[in-house]
Design goal:
Elements: E1 2-7, H1 10-22, E2 27-33, E3 51-57, H2 63-75, H3 85-109, E4 118-119, E5 122-123, H4 130-145, H5 162-170, H6 175-180, H7 187-190, H8 207-228, H9 230-250, H10 274-290, H11 300-316, H12 322-342
Antiparallel strand pairs: 1-3, 2-3, 4-5
Length: 348
């Protein structure tokens, strides 16, 4: 801030300051009692004391312009172009409202002291991720307690071991129901055991299978749950897991497909959370494309890796639930499109 001059008349100082404001130049007027009785300051304050008005320019870049305008004002202070009091008042009101709005936005963006955090520079809605942690814990427990898909048989003939009981109870269909029903994949569900639509996502076939899926679940799911809450995360996981499982079941068996497409063979005995993970991936991939303000982006390299892995498994890897991958991915993509269309959150 720099002083560019002094005016003796407070009214003139105000007129000049108002005019500069309409020219996008911020000018502050400091009114001071005149110390020099012989000075040119002849205007009186409220108490009859002579005053002087110092003119200060806020922005250094506007100093030269301010000086030039002051010279022009002193040459013709009564020029009608300086009668801009009403306009200057409106500008000051607009500026005050804008500052108030900015402060309100800053306050709203400031994360609360509890249950919040920052993700990629964006305030989060919550810090805890109970759904992600819960699914990981249940997957570890279920996988280890069922022998990673190979439950130990009971030593007592005709009885199920605890590992077998848990595994058969959490699979999409109990193999005994499957056989007695004439290979109906929905035989157990038709008996009312609807939990089987979800529970296969907790079962895994090896420690590598478990670790791979849990890492994907943690990195993708924690971002979604922190940004959009636990209820939404639970819905997206369930939708992706259920749709993925159903697609895997509905696909035709290998003997009805050409050898090149055996990777797309359907079965009701697939296990694992990879369908749900692909649902989370699909959501985070498509959501920012449809809602650019969404604060998380999937890097192109990560998209290429996930899609490349899907295609590679279809053609070159046996015993992979590719139908679940495709179904989960579609569920995540559709959810992203629906949420973006409905504009349900503040990121849209």
């Amino acid at each position: 801030m720099r002083r560019i001059g002094t005016l003796a008349d407070p009214e003139q100082a105000k007129r000049f300051s108002d005019y500069l404001l309409t020219q996008s130049v911020q000018c502050r007027v400091d009114t001071n009692p005149s110390k020099d009785p012989s000075s040119d300051a002849t205007a009186d304050g409220d108490d009859g004391q002579a005053v002087s008005c110092d003119l200060w320019i806020r922005d250094e870049a506007d100093v030269q312009k301010g000086k030039a305008e002051l010279d022009a004002f002193l040459a013709a202070p009564e020029d009608p172009k300086y009668n801009v009091g009403v306009k200057a008042k409106q500008l000051r009101k607009q500026t005050a409202e804008e500052e108030k709005r900015k402060r309100k936005l800053q306050k709203a963006a400031k994360p609360p002291s509890r249950g919040s955090g920052i993700l990629m520079g964006v305030p989060l809605r919550q810090q805890a991720i109970p759904v992600v942690i819960g699914v990981i814990a249940l997957s570890i427990l279920a996988s280890f307690s069922t022998g990673f898909g190979y439950p130990k048989p009971s030593n007592v003939p005709g009885e199920l071991s605890s590992e077998e009981a848990v595994f058969y109870g959490l699979s999409f269909v109990d193999w005994r129901d499957y056989v007695t029903s004439g290979n109906d994949p929905f035989a157990s569900i038709k008996k009312g055991e609807v939990w089987r639509l979800v529970t296969p996502i907790f079962l895994h076939g090896s420690t590598f299978h478990l670790a791979f899926n849990m890492l994907g679940l943690f990195f993708l799911g924690s971002a979604i749950e922190r940004l959009q809450g636990s209820w939404f995360m639970a819905f997206l996981l369930l939708a992706s897991g259920i749709v993925g499982g159903l697609v895997q079941v509905w696909l035709p068996p290998a003997d009805e497909l050409p050898s090149l497409l055996h990777g797309l063979a359907g079965t009701p005995f697939s296990i694992g959370a990879s369908g749900a993970v692909y649902g989370l991936f699909g959501y985070l991939w498509i959501r920012p494309l449809l809602a650019p303000s969404y604060p998380v982006r999937m890097l192109p390299n990560n998209v290429a890796i996930m899609m490349g892995f899907l295609v590679f498994c279809i053609f070159f890897v046996d015993r992979i639930a590719n139908g679940a991958h495709i179904g989960g991915l579609l569920a995540g993509v559709v959810t992203a499109a629906a949420v973006s269309q409905m504009n349900l959150d503040s990121f849209s």
